[in-house]
């Protein structure tokens, strides 16, 4: 993710030549000085390399700090950077829980800096269109929604017991990693979550310890150890607009590669979006005769008039990709810095998602409905 942020800053002026600020990659902090690090630094064009993040934060020539390391350093880096007067771009989850995330928000507010959060799925043009259709009443009053974030990145039981599976280093499992995205997407398009009840499970209870310096996707080779956080979550939600929602997320779903999506059903129609067909939105509304039954869906391809597509592509269904969404985030962050007014997802949005995650843990542990 550090490389994704760096590429986004490098590409900013390619797509937004009128951007109010011109990024320069000054320094990177990476504790492991190996061939992979050196290759990335050379390719991306960083001017300086530090083996500790404290040295980077203290630099007078650094104005923005991207926090893209493991979850357990997010709070410390973000708070120190804000206190040093640096603007932030923090990947989710911003903190390991709502308490740490609130500490980041407090530091940002006290310092008066801008702080973006990595909720990139908000920036999909088809999602922006979905938000507009819901807000305009095109599908009527929302009755119920479904949001699913299913992935297979931890489906291999022989995958190493990395920091992602430890409570002290990761906090939650799929909750912080994917459900935070799902909660933000639902909130962005439909409404805030007010109440929920949750079930969660860990299907792969043990994994072999990772070899020192191993990547997350490599096989474990050490002793068996316990997986300390959840693989799977399902939830029933009541939203602020009175509608209902179902949320499901898994990191061990065999056959599901980034199946991230949202369906919204209203009194006059429905819409659905799937990240695997990122530039398409399925829309169904009542026919010309006003009939409710047998209404059909149409595929609405994102066009240059939807969201930021026109900045990247010249016509409808010329698709954007994941990295492009991070360029949009970078553009909104530099606009926030230049104007002093937040644009796009911020750490306040990260705090809202973190509170949903914390409520889900309480609901699962206590087996009851929890009100936020």
TrEMBL record:
Please name the Gene3D superfamilies in this protein's record: Dihydrodipicolinate Reductase, domain 2 (3.30.360.10), NAD(P)-binding Rossmann-like Domain (3.40.50.720)
User: Residues in domain Gfo/Idh/MocA-like oxidoreductase N-terminal?
Assistant: 2-118
Q: Which UniProt keywords apply?
A: Oxidoreductase
Superkingdom is Bacteria
For this protein, the record's InterPro entries field holds: Gfo/Idh/MocA-like_OxRdtase_N, Gfo/Idh/MocA_oxidrdct_glycsds, GFO_IDH_MocA-like_dom, NAD(P)-bd_dom_sf
Q: Where is the GFO/IDH/MocA-like oxidoreductase domain?
A: 129-271
Query: From the Swiss-Prot or TrEMBL record, what is one GO molecular function term?
Result: nucleotide binding
- Is-annotated flag, keyword Aminoacyl-tRNA synthetase? no
The species this protein belongs to is Aeromicrobium erythreum
Q: What is this protein called?
A: Myo-inositol 2-dehydrogenase
The record's section on Pfam families has: GFO_IDH_MocA (PF01408), GFO_IDH_MocA_C3 (PF22725)
């Amino acid at each position: 993710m550090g490389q994704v942020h760096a590429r986004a800053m490098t590409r900013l002026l390619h797509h937004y030549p009128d951007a109010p600020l011109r990024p320069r990659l000054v320094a990177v902090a990476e504790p492991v000085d190996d061939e992979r690090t050196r290759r990335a630094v050379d390719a991306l064009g960083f001017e300086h390399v530090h083996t500790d993040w404290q040295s980077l934060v203290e630099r007078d020539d650094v104005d923005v700090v991207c926090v893209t390391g493991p979850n357990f350093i997010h709070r410390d880096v973000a708070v120190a950077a804000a206190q040093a007067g640096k603007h932030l771009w923090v990947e989710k989850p911003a903190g390991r829980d709502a308490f740490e995330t609130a500490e980041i928000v407090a530091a940002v507010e006290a310092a008066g800096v801008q702080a973006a959060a990595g909720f990139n799925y908000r920036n999909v043009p088809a999602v922006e269109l979905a938000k507009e259709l819901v807000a305009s009443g095109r599908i009527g009053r929302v009755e119920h929604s479904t949001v699913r974030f299913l992935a297979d990145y931890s489906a291999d039981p022989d995958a190493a017991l990395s920091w992602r599976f430890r409570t002290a280093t990761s906090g939650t499992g799929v909750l912080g990693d994917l459900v935070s995205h799902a909660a933000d997407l639902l909130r962005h398009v439909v409404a805030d979550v007010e109440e929920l009840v949750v079930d969660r499970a860990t299907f792969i209870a043990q994994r072999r310890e990772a070899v020192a310096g191993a990547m997350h996707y490599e096989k474990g080779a050490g002793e068996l150890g316990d997986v300390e956080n959840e693989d799977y979550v399902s939830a029933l939600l009541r939203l602020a607009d009175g509608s209902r929602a179902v949320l499901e997320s898994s990191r061990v779903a065999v056959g599901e590669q980034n199946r991230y999506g949202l369906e919204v059903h209203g009194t006059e129609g429905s819409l659905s979006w799937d990240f695997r067909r990122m530039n398409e939105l399925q829309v169904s509304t009542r026919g010309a005769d006003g009939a409710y039954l047998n209404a059909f869906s149409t595929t609405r391809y994102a066009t240059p008039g939807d969201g930021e597509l026109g900045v990247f592509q010249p016509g409808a269904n010329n698709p954007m990709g994941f990295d492009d969404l991070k360029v949009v985030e970078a553009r909104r962050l530099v606009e926030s810095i230049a104007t002093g007014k937040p644009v796009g997802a911020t750490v306040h949005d990260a705090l809202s998602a973190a509170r949903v995650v914390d409520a889900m843990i309480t609901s699962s542990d206590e087996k009851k409905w929890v009100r936020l």
